[in-house]
């Protein structure tokens, strides 16, 4: 295997993303093959069938039917696969996966993970930002477009697709609490 590993993420509408992945699959000779034992174990854990080219794996919607914690763990396992030298085409709408991949990118800046062990981080979870590309898929036009996201070693993936929705939800929740507090003329005991 000559590839040094890469993670290419498509965020957003997975219907048009599937079209992009299908094009990749058409170019691949998809076949069962002898794979490294450690990769086989990871693929079984991730429930990915062992069909791929020598160094390319494509995955769509890995977050389906997974809890947030499982999605976070899943992202860490993906990093291990990239660090083994495989290229992964990933289509996802999971902010948990994208945020954890960002954490793994930021971990790569640290000489030591001391103090972070309680989160379950290990050196194998470090991800070089130069190995990551991320795109938002905009399918609301006649021809889907792929909008590149900024990826930096210090802050990870700038996924505005999630950030705008999360910010808006936090803002509305804050206003609802404020309105409830005024209505009840005092601090709400919500816990």
Task: Describe what this molecule looks like in 3D.
The protein has 191 residues and is α/β, with parallel strands linked by helices. It has five helices and nine strands. Mean pLDDT is 78; it is low at 27-35. It has helices at residues 14-27, 37-46, 68-83, 95-107, 160-183, and strands at 6-12, 31-32, 51-52, 56-60, 87-92, 132-138, 145-149, 151-152, 156-157. It has a five-stranded mixed sheet with strand order 4-5-1-6-7, sandwiched between helices. The longest helix is centred in the last third of the chain and has 24 residues, at 160-183. Helix 3 crosses helix 4 (95-107). The protein has two domains: 6-158, no CATH class; 162-191. Helix content is 40%, strand content 20%.
Shape: globular
Q: What sequence of helices (H) and strands (E) makes up the elements?
A: EHEHEEHEHEEEEH
The biggest sheet amounts to: 5 strands, mixed
Number of strands: 9
Low-pLDDT stretches are 27-35
Our Rg estimate from Cα atoms comes to: 19 Å
Give the count of helical stretches: 5
Instruction: Determine the strand fraction and express it as a percent band.
Output: 15-25%
Task: Report how far the terminal alpha carbons are from each other.
Answer: 54 Å
Helical residues, percent:
40-55%
Question: Which structural class do the helices and strands define?
Answer: alpha/beta
**Mean pLDDT rating:** 78
Number of domains: 2
Order of adjacent strands in the largest pleated sheet: 4-5-1-6-7
């Amino acid at each position: 295997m000559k590839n040094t590993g890469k993670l290419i993420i498509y965020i957003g509408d997975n219907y048009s993303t599937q079209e992009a992945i299908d094009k990749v699959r058409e170019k691949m000779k998809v076949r069962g093959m002898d794979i490294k034992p450690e990769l086989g174990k990871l693929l079984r854990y991730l429930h990915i069938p062992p069909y791929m080219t020598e160094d390319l794996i494509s995955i769509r919607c890995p977050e389906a039917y997974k809890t947030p914690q499982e999605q976070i763990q899943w992202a860490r396992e993906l990093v291990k696969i990239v660090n083994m030298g495989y290229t992964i085409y990933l289509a996802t709408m999971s902010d948990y996966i994208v945020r954890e991949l960002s954490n793994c990118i930021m971990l790569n800046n640290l000489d030591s993970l001391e103090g972070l062990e309680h989160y379950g981080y290990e050196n194998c979870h470090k991800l070089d930002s130069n190995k990551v590309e991320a795109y938002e898929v905009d399918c609301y036009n006649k021809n889907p477009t792929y909008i590149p996201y900024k990826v930096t070693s210090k802050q990870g993936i700038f996924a505005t697709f999630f950030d705008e929705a999360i910010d808006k939800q936090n803002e509305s929740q804050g206003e609802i609490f404020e309105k409830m507090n005024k209505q009840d003329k005092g601090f709400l005991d919500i816990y």
